[in-house]
Amino acid sequence: MNRLKTMMLLATLTALLLFVGQALGGRGGLMIALVFAGVMNFVSYWWSDKIVLSMYGAQAVEVAVDRETGVIKLVRVASAHDVGKAINPLAVTGQIEGGILMGLGYALSEGLLFDEGKIINASFADYKIPTIRDIPAATPMIVEKDYNSEPYGAKGVGEMSVFGIAPAVANAVAHLTGVRIKDLPLSAEKLRGQLKESKEK
């Protein structure tokens, strides 16, 4: 039995013991399950260089904000990702650059609007996606490490390159303006309204 199967078996046993302990209403099964969970976490740490269950990335962005209109522009992006072994570096770079643009739309403009349960911006005339004019200066960075447990040592990058852009943009806007917007997209209307409120306080 390989290490990954062993970890999955430990996780399954832990879940079963938790279920049994709860069903019996006693503390014995629960305590055994907690001990098993601790053992599983130790095993996970011990074999962390052999078994890869997570992916990692980091983004840094520079934004420009028009305080009168609330318009936010993404100026520069650096996006680094642990991809394991980059079998095709050009394809990995393309994935990261595409993820940056998708994350940009998610952060600043893309959002479905509803009226009585019906989508009212279902066309590209109303549902705003980034265009070539919105593309920032991008620096994709490939971080490589050979993971023996993965096929050819490679890991995924497609989804990871999207997830961090919107939080990075929101943090940059908050750092620049002092206004924290917690719902996406970070539209000009939202930021302008928040800036106006902050001035009135």
Please characterize this protein's 3D structure:
The protein has 201 residues and is of the alpha+beta class. The protein has two domains: 44 residues; 145 residues, 2-Layer Sandwich (Aldehyde Oxidoreductase, domain 4), CATH 3.30.365. The protein contains six helices and five strands; from the N terminus they run ααββαβββααα. A hairpin with a 2-residue loop joins strand 3 and strand 4. It starts with a helix and ends with a helix. The model has no long low-confidence stretch (mean pLDDT 81).
How would you spell out the order of helices and strands? HHEEHEEEHHH
CATH superfamily (homologous) name of the largest domain: Aldehyde oxidase/xanthine dehydrogenase, molybdopterin binding domain
Low-pLDDT stretches are: none
Strand content: 15-25%
* Global Rg: 23 Å
Mean pLDDT: 81
Under CATH at level 1, the class of the largest domain stands as Alpha Beta
Q: Biggest sheet, in brief?
A: 3 strands, mixed
What is the count of distinct domains?
2
Coarse structural class:
alpha+beta
- Under CATH, the topology of the largest domain can be stated as Aldehyde Oxidoreductase, domain 4
- Residue share in helix: 40-55%
Assigned CATH architecture of the largest domain? 2-Layer Sandwich
